[in-house]
């Protein structure tokens, strides 16, 4: 049994125990045991972490992990530029630290500033929205002025009118542009339109050009250019510009087209079509604009405007018959006689109203550059003829030599008879012309319309139309509507009939020349191939093989009509091979 150590031994010097090592070891062991028993147990440090639910109580709180350590930040203090522990990154993950920060002066002042900034932002956005709405309304006014060719200095007057009628965006003068010139806004609109057009040009793989020569009011030669674009399978026609050209030669026009396209970053190889009025400078086979373009773009084709073709057919027929040419000159003289005198025009109005219950149809000038002008001019002469004769006779009696000359022309039987004959013929050409002036011309309607026009003209050539029959029934014994008709004898009647027949025949021939049958057949082929509405409709009960064969046979009869015997045999062999493969 180990010897029990006394309390006194704890206070002895170590040297006292050198001779007794065993006792020393026992004493040291007892000391260690006693120290362990006396020393209190150490507390382990508790690790705290960020809790996501704190964000719901403190919306400004944000926690980021920086160098592997979580740090808390205050968005309000950061935004307002404060400098405190929550802008540098707080590591004390206690809710008490968050509560303390939320009550400090830095955070309170930063929160008030954030609220003021939010309120100010809302007011600014509301003011900007109102200002933008007013600006859009003003731009719409300028856009309307540009489209309707209204002078820029009229802008202030239009805005005053809108304010007078209490238009919502013009009630207050605040935010309304009051300068007398609206050029700045027009320039802004132009920039937007040009950018949109550039984007469309960039997005179109193929481009068609429509060009024509024109002049401005100072007779400066201009070149107007339209482009036809393909955008996501849809064709769109856009105005490109009206440009100055120093001459009307093919080389000058072509160089201007190249210059304009290069400014828009358009490659000439993308131009696959050129539409024009058919003039030799445009469609010349060797040196025309189309020929020059084909050297740069091998796949480009030239298209002669259909409306121009119809107008030129009528012009060719009028040139071929002297009586029709003289008739056009006479009605141009009538228009000029009344155009320059308001009193004459007023007397004619009054007399027309007294002679008939119909309102007066204003006189029109036949113009070569307006396709429908001759038809309207003929209608004006037909409706006002009795009043014209009476008024011109009154002027002639007064000694007016010009009135005497015009009266002698319009009283002739041939003149008034030709007026009614043209009233039957020209509507046929007008209807055909209007078909070609549509924005989207249906290929399927072109050949039937041309054939229908030729058929109608043939009937008018062989027999009088309704207007001419009405005239012949009312013209008896040299009087028409109680007004004397001169030179109404048989020779004049026969001369008129011969002139009418020749004019209509020339018109039929001109239509055949301007619209060749092979071209019409080609248009019909395009309609067969490209018109989805003509494709065979899918019906129930058919197998896939039957539907495929039906599509293979679709259009065979229509396309064969425009091919020779050899081509028909080749197509039959091809179709039979395809069907057998199926």
UniProtKB/TrEMBL annotation:
One Pfam family it belongs to: zf-C17orf113
UniProt region (Disordered), positions on chain: 16-35, 554-582
Domain TTF-type: 46-125
Listed InterPro entries: RNaseH-like_sf, Znf_C17orf113, Znf_TTF
Residue ranges with Basic and acidic residues bias: 561-582
Designated name of the protein: TTF-type domain-containing protein
Organism: Aldrovandia affinis
